[in-house]
Amino acid sequence: QVWLVESGGGLVQAGGSLRLSCAAAGTTSNIDNMAWYRQAPGKERELVSSITNTGNINYADAVKGRFTISRDNAKKIAYLQMNSLKPEDTAVYYCRADRRGETFWGQGTQVSVSS
Q1: pLDDT of 57-109, one tens digit each?
Q2: Which of 73, 86, 95, 105 could be cross-linked to 22 through a Cys-Cys bond (beta carbons 3.0 to 4.6 Å apart)?
């Protein structure tokens, strides 16, 4: 069992920055992939960025150049550095981890960006 706890969300002005953290606990060995998703009101959950245990990274086009995903395998923490935030980035951000064919989700953290 893997538990994921997100933190770092909040309310910021457009152009500001936030860093989200996702801490894994429980059976944390062999987590192959970690990812950040987001879901805005009235929209489906969408992939923001993902990172494998070897450092392979993907970004959604909407955040490329502004967001940076990273992972500390020793500390079992994934990060999402968000710069140049826009109002359209407003959403609940969820952390996802994949371990040996199982998927685990965090509870989500709210990110709100004002104009």
Answers
A1: 999 999 999 999 999 988 899 999 999 999 999 999 999 999 999 999 999 99
A2: 95
